[in-house]
Every structure is written in structure tokens, then in C-alpha cells.
Amino acid sequence: MRNILKIGTRESQLAVWQATLVKDLLKEHAIDSELVLIKSEGDIDLKTPLYAMGVQGIFTKTLDAALLDNRIDLAVHSMKDVPTLLAEGIAQAATLKRGNYKDVFVFRNPQPSGEFVIRDFDPASFLTIATSSIRRKSQWLHRYPNHRVENLRGNINTRLKKLEESNWLGAIFAAAGLERINLLPSHSIELDWMLPAPAQGAIMVVCREEDVETKKKCSLLNDENTELCTRIERDFLRSLLGGCSTPISALAEIEEEELFFRGNVLSVDGKQKKEIEKILPVEKADYMGFEAAKELMQDGGDVIINNIRNASK
């Protein structure tokens, strides 16, 4: 009898889509699996802002517990939700090829002109938008300092419904999430100027550290370029000791054997910003995330981060 791998996933439509993708990819390698739906704490509390919960791994720890209890064999996560240091006994088994890493702005209503352009907004205007992410909030306020940013929680479907019922101009979402479950509205635009969360658009598969056989099977799904780029972004985040309460962004991309990196940190109100860019040959880029973080801290990033920490005490 063939062993059937149990894939743990959250119950949201996006999480199930991601887990089903892993199931289908394993099937292509003649590996049978089944989904096991598990509710996470992050799905239960839909009111508290993510950055106020005070817990890294809010969407992953329930699945970690199921793994360590041997109720599932592997778990699938949006990689940006996974703490940079995995729980003891949990190992990264695969990183899937990255999807769209950008953020998108979804207008509440189609604009009369039929054109959805916000790059020409007057920074002095007074408008209200919404997001669940302090990173998006900070970058938005840096660009539009007079705007009001409201908290928006829930899964994608819930957030779209709340937007529709609101009086906001619009709300910010991760493009990949909307695209993957075919919910990207036509009245939306990509925010090319907004730097994403580290590992945004990527999917991580984890298993028990001791489960060598499952780790070997999952490695068949690994995309090396995505693994390298997201590792560098997460090294940058970890070096800055960032979490959900710190507005840190990072993006690493490979073009013609060179790795291009951009990273930044902002104050919560968006008034202060420090950023960095680096380019290295791919074969020399292993420690780029750590090096970029060190340089950013020396350039004043430490002041921003320390102010955020002191304010949260």
C-alpha cells in the first residue's frame, strides 16, 4: 500500500489553493497526498491588527503543532507569513517558483474616467484607504502623508466584501493572492513603487526535520532561484530583527547571472525612510541579505528600528 502524505493547510480559499497546488505537483511525481484543513489563530481573530497581535508565526504555529504531533506530514504557507527562524523540529522542504510579488490597489468603485491611476494623486489630498499591513501603511503614508489608513482584516473574500461596503477610496492587497483564486478586480492597479514584503508571492513547504523521506519528496518541487532570492530577503528581515510590527520591505531578483537587491525600513507613520540597493554576481550573493541589513543599520536604519521598538514597550 502506497503511503499518502498528509498536507496541512489553513481553511481560507487561498491557503487551500496553495495546498492543492502542492498536491498536484506531488502527483506529477507519482506521489499521493491528501489535504488536512486546520484553523489557525490568525484566522479566528479577524479584528486585532496583525502587527498588534505580538506573535510571529500567527498563521503558522497551529500547523507547526500539527506537524510535531504527527497529525500531518507537511504544511504549506505563504512564505511571507513564515517566521525567519522556524520552530524547533520544523524544516524548510521546498520553495515553489515565485508568483507575482507586487501589491495592488483595488478601488472600491470603478473611476468615472475608466482610468485607475493613483501615481498622480496630490500628496496634499485627504483620502482614506485600508490595509492590514503596517508595511503597506507606512509606504503609503510616506508617499501620501495626508491620507488616512484604516485597518482591514480577514481573508481575501472578507476584505473585498468590507471594501465594497466601506466609504474608502480603495484597499491594498497582495497581487498573487487575488490572482491565484481569480478575484483580482478589473478596477485595480499594480503599485510598482511599493516594495513588497520579504518573500511575498512565494510559497513554502515545511515538514518535520527528522522526516528525511518527506523532505526528499518535497525537494522535487523546489525552485532554486526563488529559494535563493527569498532566503536573501528573509536574511535581511531577520538581521533587522523585523516582524509584523516593523515596516521592512525587500526584493531580490536574478537577471543574467546577477542578483539585484532592494530593501527599506520606514517609521510607522511613514515620515522616516532608509533604503538600500545592491548588485552582485549570483555566485557571490549568498550573504547579500545580511550585508545589506548591516549597511542599512549603519546608514540610520537603526534609529528607525529602535524608535519602533521603544514605542511598543
Number of helical stretches of at least 4 residues:
9
Q: By helix and strand content, what is the structural category?
A: alpha/beta
Mean pLDDT: 89
- Largest beta sheet: strand ordering: 2-1-3-10-4
Give your account of this protein's structure.
The chain has 313 residues and is α/β, with parallel strands linked by helices. 32% of the residues lie in helices and 24% in strands. Strands 2-1-3-10-4 form a 5-stranded mixed β-sheet, sandwiched between helices. Strands 7-6-8-5-9 form a 5-stranded mixed β-sheet, with helices on both faces. It has a 3-stranded antiparallel β-sheet with strand order 11-12-13. Strand 1, helix 1 and strand 2 (33-37) form a beta-alpha-beta unit. The chain starts with a strand and ends with a helix. 42% of the residues are buried. Mean pLDDT is 89; it is low at 42-55.
